[in-house]
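Continuing the batch. This is chain 6 of the set; chains 1 through 5 are on the previous pages. Same settings as before, nothing changed between runs. Recording input and output for traceability.
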Amino acid sequence: MALSNVRCPNCRSPLSLRVEQLVDAERDPSAKARLLSGALNRVRCPVCGWEGQLATPLVYHDPQHELLLTYVPVEVSLPKREQEQLIGSLINQAISHLPPEKRKGYLLQPQAVLTLQGLVERVLQADGITREQLEAQRARLRLFEDLLRTPTDSLEAFIASHDAELDETFFQLASMTVQASREAQGSQAMNERLERALALSSYGTRLLAQQAEVEAAAESLGRLGEPLTREAVLDLILDAPSEAREAALASLARPALDYTFFQILSERIEKAEGDEKRRLTDVRQRLLRLTQEIDAAQEARVAQAASLLRMLVRADDLDRALREALPAIDDLFLGLLGANLQAAQERGDAATLERLRQIDDKLRDVIRDSLPPSLRLAQQVVAEPDEATAMRLIDEKAASVDGDFVNALLTMAQRLEVSGDAAGAARLERLHRHAVGVSMRHKLAGGHA
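Output for chain 6:
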């Protein structure tokens, strides 16, 4: 996308930037995300500090929903003929990327919208989001703005009066708003306020309790040792002190909860009597429901990861798309990327393989650069195949061996243990113990190498 020369709407200073005028939801889903988040054509003038969305003609195209929208801001003083020529050329660009079989009648009847907000609403409505849901979203955004404006000494009272509204959807929407902000200092302040609100809210209290249950469940699974049998997992679940722990164990040990596992549980139910029989039956019902929910959530995550990967493969500006996609990158996405790399190599698809390798290389760079020094060191240590060399690396970088580093090694060791890699877990536990010693010696020495 070429640079365009425009003027700041506030002080009229000349600006050089990339202006997006065609949003093709199929070819570049990240452009659609920028449109919906308010980040599309957002600019900050280095002269006067004005920040906002640049007023420019737009064409929005979504072949899946057969939607073709046009928008020309009233403040853009273009003669009608020039407007028609510009919109026509943008529509032709959208059509040119479609195969002949997808060129349908809706392309001959573009729908004009009067405002940018109206365009966004039409896009969301096509995605199945109702006007009521849009209003609920706006209400949550207004609540977030009120939260940010609330004085610190009034924060607890504000949260108490809005506690029911501070739910999972609110915090997700607020987090997305923070991520869309381009001001680092402002983002940090918003994050700090959001974290404080989370800690004070009932939702945050429940979330912390769930995290504590997951940690306790992981610890108890780790104590089972190897090999991890279905009978041992079942005994652990039946001895769980609460349904929350039961759910955490089921989630962490999901691969063990297979047909044979439920056969073992059913046999115990048949042998039991009275209250114990009813208790075991209730446990079985809860576990069946939990496994269905876990599998459905996993399928949804896989679908989201696959959609994200397709978006990155088609993205015109890969660097930008990767930066925007980073919050959604997790172990599942990385595993899917690896599987697609292997599949492309096996079928000899050179073009796809090259693109996936490009994504993989750039993604590793972006992730590494975004990590604090201690977590970058943890990655280096874990990737080092020779244990003695890994320990020397910890010794040499003692100043970076902080709490985050030590916790990262412990977390990775626990994951390997749960997944059945006893040797890998033992190796990381030895490195963890070594790191704890290095950290303590470094602190006793006054923080000097």
